[in-house]
Amino acid sequence: MIFVNLPTDDLAAADAFYGALGFTKNEQFSDENASSWVISDVITIMVLKREYFATFLVESDAPHLPGARGAHEVLNALSCESSDEVDQLMSKAVAGGGSAYREADAPFPGMYQGAFADPDGHVWEVAWMDPEAMQG
């Protein structure tokens, strides 16, 4: 399993965004400081208020957190079942308060991908690869 921990300036906006993508909120692990969003049986996003997120950092890293805005320390990528799913997630992301980071296109034969940013600027790439094209 993987748990992606993301800081946020606005937990309500993050909740609206990830809910708009169709992910399921796990109330058991959500409270006023954090929200748990289930993407699949093996992927969960933990969105944490920036101040709460900082409590998990080594003391020397905490002062750098506010200055990290605009810097991408990680690019998250999700595999999709089809090119239509890529387009659907891109549309849901924008409608849910995010933005298109990179419009969906086909950079290589058999691959279709795009990327969106959540309200805090965390980038999510979504991609579909045609299994037949990948076999050569």
Report how far the terminal alpha carbons are from each other.
30 Å
Strand coverage percent? 35-45%
Number of strands: 8
- Per DSSP, the total helix count is 4
How many structurally independent domains? 1
Q: In CATH terms, what is the fold-level topology? A: 2,3-Dihydroxybiphenyl 1,2-Dioxygenase, domain 1
Poorly predicted tracts of residues: 67-72
Query: What is the CATH architecture assignment?
Result: Roll
- SSE succession: EHEEEHEHEEEH
Biggest sheet statistics: 4 strands, mixed
The whole-number mean of residue pLDDT values reads: 87
How are the strands of the biggest sheet laid out side by side? 1-4-3-2
Helix content: 10-25%
Tell me the radius of gyration.
Answer: 16 Å
Shape: elongated
- The CATH class designation is Alpha Beta
> SS-based structural class?
alpha/beta
List keywords for this structure.
alpha/beta, 2,3-Dihydroxybiphenyl 1,2-Dioxygenase, domain 1, 4-stranded mixed β-sheet, 4 helices, 38% strand, elongated, VOC_core, Glyoxalase, Glyoxy/Ble-like_N, Glyas_Bleomycin-R_OHBP_Dase
Give a written overview of the molecule.
A hairpin with a 5-residue loop joins β7 (111-117) and β8 (123-129). The chain is of the alpha/beta class and 136 residues long. It has one domain: 2,3-Dihydroxybiphenyl 1,2-Dioxygenase, domain 1 (Roll), CATH 3.10.180. The relative contact order is 0.18. The strands form two sheets. It has a four-stranded mixed beta sheet with strand order 1-4-3-2. Strands 5-8-7-6 form a four-stranded mixed beta sheet. It contains four helices and eight strands, in the order βαβββαβαβββα. It starts with a strand and ends with a helix.
